[in-house]
Amino acid sequence: MRFLLDAEQTAFVRTLDQLLAAADPPAAVRAWSAGDHGPGRALWERLAGTGVFALAVPEEYDGLGPLPVEIAAAFVELGRHAVPGPLAETVAVCALLRGLGDRGPAKEWLPRIASGEVLVTLAPAPAGSYALDADAADAVFHVVADGLAVAVAAGHGPVRASLDPARRLARPTGGEPLVTGPAVRDAVRQAADWASFATAAQSLGTGLALMERTVAYVKQRTQFGTAIGGFQAVKHQLANALLGLEFARPLLYGAAVALAGGSPGAGRDIAAAKVACGEAAYAAARTALQLHGAIGYTAEYDLSLWIGKATALRTAWGTPSECRARVLETADPAAQPERHRRRGDGIAGVGVRNAAELFVGRQARK
Fold this sequence. Notes:
The protein is an alpha+beta fold. It has 13 helices and 10 strands. Helix 1 runs parallel beside helix 4 (68-80) and helix 7 packs antiparallel against helix 10 (303-315).
């Protein structure tokens, strides 16, 4: 299945790309990694001015959405430019507040999130999990009372390093519950799905950036008097990495369409997109590292910002094994046509969901 953005969506993506290209995100990322959130917060406010965070907020709370397709398109660009901060977690908080069934917290927080007035993050369930960028956030939402309540943390524990230096982790502490009751669990699951979806989009953008930078590099680096990009082995590595990214793209937008339509299978589509985008970006990172040679290993070289991000996003909000299990647990091979069950069949002409099952199933059996 082929997905194309319309003219308005394409113009929005182009605007984001131009804004971020002029904002020097690598400098903001390095400052963020060192605990200086000023440049990152300034970039955050500029993104809010374009409506990026309003895409996850309903119109009744001064937002534009929720608009999953636009969120996917925007977050691919945020990943391409390595924007720091709790991006997926912001989308997750918006989903959490929408699903709590209490208008009070939503009315208090959602308009401020949409405008960029506050920077928020969310610690995944269960209670006691680490929250991303708790030291930078104005509010840290976390699950308490055995999953039956959501609170805004009163503080956080020590900041820990992660695979990506710009992803700073800390455990939230304390705070009075905002909402309690059984509805909280459903809202938390919904928030986790949206976080996984946004993370998949970031991963795809990260992988695309790694490929763009690596293709440019192999055209410049020479060996035996010729650019290494002309070597067949190099071409094969780049082609394999690019194929993974291009296959992941329709799964991401398929998940966006499922979310937009309220499909009961949206969770499975999100899991398929998450594993495909995460694994494709990770493969792109490994390819970029190898083809850049010795400089690919240096933290001073900007490539490291994307390599670290691809590695961290691969397991954030759903590890590959967890996502594969979620896809496979609801897949019924007996319900699929015989031509799709035969070993060795391709995916041409197969719907997005069947394609996801084939891809994830094969990966799980490797």
